[in-house]
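User: Show me sequence and structure for the first protein, then do the same for the second.

Assistant: Starting with the first protein.
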Amino acid sequence: MEKNGDNKLIGVPRLRTVFAVVLLFASTVCLSYEGQILFNGNEIYYEVEEADGEFIVIVGDGPGLDSSYMKGIFDHGKSLRYNQLGSGMSQNLSSLDITFQYYISELAALIYSLDIESFHLIGHGFGGAVAVGLALTNPPGLLSLVIVNPRLNYPAIDSALFEARTQESTKELDKFELLFGNSSESESESSIAKNSINMETYNLFWGNDSSFINGKLRGFDLSCGLADIDVPVLVCTGLKSFPGVIHTMTYQVGALESEFVTFIDSGHFPMTEETTAFKLIVEDFHRRVEQTVESNREDEACFDILSETPDERIFGLQDSQRTLDMQVGEDFTVMLPSNPGAGYFWSVESFDEDVLRLISDPFYEEPKEAGSGYDIFGFRVVGSGSSPLIFSFGSSWDVVPIKSCSMLVQVEEHFVEPLIIHASDSGKTFIVGLNEPIEVVLESTVSSSLSWRIVLTSPEIVRQPKESESRVFEDSSGLAKKIEQVYYFEGMNYGEATLEFAYGSPWDDVPPEKIFEATLIVTEPFKEVSIVQDSDNGRAIEIGPHHTLIIKLKKALAIDSGWKISSLDPKFQLIEDPYEAEYLEVSYSVFHLRPTEFGESFLEFYYSEDAAYDQPVGTFKIKIQTNETVDRSRVPLQ
């Protein structure tokens, strides 16, 4: 019994051990998964090896080389490998003419499709050029760049091939052996590439000549771009690699924040020749980068200049699927992270033009030297109702967008009695609000063929929401005694508009018998705080006597650059000294002003890149109308 009892006691921990091993094996199997993304009609194969830590996106050598030789190298992060189009399981089924720019867009598509928010990037050989190409676009979330025996300067590689052929010891070696082998023992190492490379894709870029580059890579040089990469860079090389350590060291010199490592016992594939050392060095590099990033995040203090300006409304990806409650006359901005350098951008798919207006052409802004940028869209609410606002994100390579962002803009009912202007009001100026209906009513003589016609409008300020019409008034006998021609307008944007009509014959090219002209000033609603920004250049706005005016103008990051006041109108005073601030990674020069008198004022600013010389390189002007009361009656201004 005791023996059986001992066996039972011994068997329990053994059973637990076996169970633990089974669980460990099962978890290991689950830690690796594969898939495909659809890109330009082709399926791009990828594989992820799960582990704790940041994503490590690996770009293999080639082009045409299967990335499987990089499998299992790292265990300190989520390793993402993929096969470029024309290699491994990613075959070109669309007969696409593959270019180097395509490979950059393909890599970006993979990162965007998998919603990778932050990652380290590793490029090997030709993959180093693709990784550098993507890094130069400042992709969102890029933490660091590691390039291993990178092929960046192809004219220099061509020169090295020529020199190698002139040496007695290597004159029998061909280009493929030198590129993928060990410079002293080529046969043993190039077998990695020989067994898994698509030679058709390889020849497309490197060329089919055995002694020099005669494919698409001929003359291509990306090495000069390293100075523009603002994340930490680690350059790795094998001592026995081609074209050698001295050649690869030039890349490290070109990168600003960089480190250099030589693997003594390696050729072109240090990740397989010295796996342990390679893993430890890259892992240590990644760990130090992540510690620095985390430290910077903790120290970062972003001064939100909009905290005191509640009327400014900015939305982004985090607001997708939201309902935005707005009022007529409100402006808002949508900022979406973009990467046009890799060929990816946002575009507006649809919105209701009776509710919303694009108040400027969409533009791209890269707010910091390091980091990604935004596609920026400015809208104005011009009518009541609801409008879906849909954006799509993709590139010229995509058949269907990679992702979308949609919001529902809900605007409360906005009814205003129309402003009616008669012929007796000719020569007058009227103040109206955005989307406020305007009717111009002009009488025509019953007994003649003369009529009114529009000669001039300002379509960027006012629009005609519907066609004009004629009203016929009859007497008791049923005969026409008066005809009124009615023209319908409404304010579409803030500013000044001219309406001009001519009365005469529509068939004869003769001077009109009379002219009607009126001026419409479409003004902003009164607010306690009004924000003026770059897109307001040249505008006229209306404010009240207790109004605070905040002017914030985008500037470069350079310390000496910024906006300054050219001349301060005596009708305004500075509430505090101008200062610089940052919001959503955009730098601004900020001015707080308040009116001291009623009437019309002009404010002008200039931009200088050097405080010592004060040479203006740009100007910003705005006209301000300060009114004594917020009662915006429609009494014409004489």
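Switching to the second protein now.
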Amino acid sequence: MPMRLFTSALAIAACSSAAQAEFTLHVLHINDLHSRIEPINRFDSTCSAEDDAAGECFGGVARVAAKINELRDQLVADGQNVIVLDAGDQFQGSLMYTTYKGAVEAEFMEAIGFDAMAVGNHEFDDGPAALRAFTDLVNFPVISGNLDLSGSAELNGEIDNHVVLEVGGEKIGIISALATNTVETSSPGPDVVFQDEIESLTADVATLESEGVNKIIALTHVGLGKDMEIAGAVPGLDAVVGGHSHTYLSASDPEAAGKYPTMVDNGNVQVPVVQAYAYSKYLGHLELTFSDDGVVTASGGDTILLDASVTPDEGIAARVAELAGPIEELKAQIVSEAAEPIEGSREVCRAGECPMGNLVADAMLDRVKEQGVSIAIQNGGGIRASIDAGEITMGEVLTVLPFQNTLATFQLKGADVIAALENGVSEVEDGAGRFPQVSGLKYTWDASGAPGEGRISDVMVAEGDSFVPIDPEKVYGVVTNNYMRGGGDGYSVFSTNGMEAYDFGPGLELVVADYLADKGPYAPYTDGRITQK
């Protein structure tokens, strides 16, 4: 394990001979980069060279590096205190991760100079060994306080509960927690044990306070809703820098999902909560002013759009181009054409019927319909981007479907299909990825029903040219992806009750690419297969 340097670079440039009455800290932060190493387009998918040259793209690590370096250098020159944080999910989402499995993300995080990173759920997508390989490549601390890793051969001693950064003569405690449902949304394995987020964070605050640390920030990967709960429940917490829900907060944009920072009442104090969307599109800049006894007396800042006005860091851009070379040929392959943009945003596909969900589910069912399969169910969270109109490249398909899932087929009773749909709509309010996109099936859901047991009605299955009510006792052929078939996203009914399962079909991205090629030019659509009361 490499030696880790936990002192912020600013501590070298800014120091004080005595504690001052007030201390101001600037927190530069990102979250949920999801391997968007290259610039992205307005659909959060990899940007074409033509669109990038036309100034129509955003982000990419070269822009992230440029803006962080610009702000950090300016603030340091002004004698200010700065730390740079990542709230998790560097892994998964582009061919850069598919090809290099975290090494590229580690390289650029080191080059940028992060001070700490939270473990995100997707850091476990290739198991604990892949996360260990990543931590071996970085010198900054990767933390998560609610994981018991004592039984993990790969991660025991590698992931700390918290870290203390020395900044401008002050100690800044950084604590962390990862969403406990990671056991359903990723692949941490049986040796990674999750503990309650709030209980864990409360204990870590107490530990730091007993060591004389009175400025404490939670760097979390649990989603905005849980972050707000944490901010209101954990005593002694000064701020929450979060990720996981991809929430766009802004102090200046009325179209944002909420204010930056969002203030949460915690007894006698207001705790600021921030998040900076995802996919390298924004950089968050939180400014905190502390009293001498560690109480936040003022907070402000905003998210910064990394558009074409931000000139990419030349050295990093050159390195990105070098790494992209071996995969450009595959990415550039044209597989089909879209007559109109194909909507696949998480806001749409995790809350109702969406065009990309229909495309993916239809493609799955089309591939195996000759095997007697009549129902397809795809999790909305497995759909990661939209596709714009015009030529569709394999790179775009892989950005939509980056997880290297395979088709899985099995037999399931109608009652269990209904149970699966109940699971799928059980966490819509949280934007959970389990929302079921379907083909060969229609259903209605009602948010006023009890989650997991009373939201689904009017389930109909295709029979010939019409739809008929599902028979709870009849056995149906079902196709999904191997992640869901194994119980991922809460679909345990697939793993426990699925019969005659085969989990090793073709890659889902290839299935969709082939379907698009056959149907091109593809006209995206919705047809009312999913309705909400």
